[in-house]
Amino acid sequence: MSPSFDAFIGFYPTADLAATHDFYVGTLGLTLARDQGSCHIYSVAGGGFLGFCERGSVALPPSVVLTLVTEDVDGVYERLMAAGVTAEAAPKHNAEYGIYHFYAQGPSGERVEVQRFDVGDIKSTPFRACAGIDFSAPSQ
After folding, report:
1. Which of 8, 87, 115, 120 is deepest in the core (most CB within 10 A)?
2. pLDDT tens digits, 75-128
3. How far is 118 from 98, CA to CA, in rounded Å?
């Protein structure tokens, strides 16, 4: 029998927990779900959480991307630009993955992607993602 999981938390290092809190709560509007002192856990949606732990020097590789999915990509972009956040480029369509998105820089240099899917909703459709993988089909 496969285990049943209730939630997902991805933990990431941060050099400045206060700046990280201001960015994810104040600028992006996430909710602080748990304050563990040197670690904060933020509620995203549908049982997903982002956790940040203060760890001095931080250097995440650019291949690590924290992606937030919303229908209002342009609104989030405008909000981040008004807050002085650095973005790699304005929102644009990516035909290869069927998304509309942009990348911004979080307070510890992490890449934060904000995107929406061209077709369907990740929570309600048999979701087909990168490389044609059908996540609705059981794995072999």
Report:
1. 115
2. 999 999 999 999 999 999 999 999 999 999 999 889 999 999 998 666 554 444
3. 5
- Taking phi over 0 as left and psi of -120 to 50 as alpha, with beta for the rest, 30 belongs to beta
**Structure token pair of residue 114:** 């904000």
Tokens 């994810």 identify what position?
24
> Is-contact 118 70, C-beta < 8 A?
no
19, 58 contact by CB (below 8 A): no
Residue the block writes with tokens 């342009």: 74
Half-sphere exposure of 111 (CA within 13 A, CB side): 13
Q: Alpha-carbon distance 8 to 40, whole Å?
A: 14
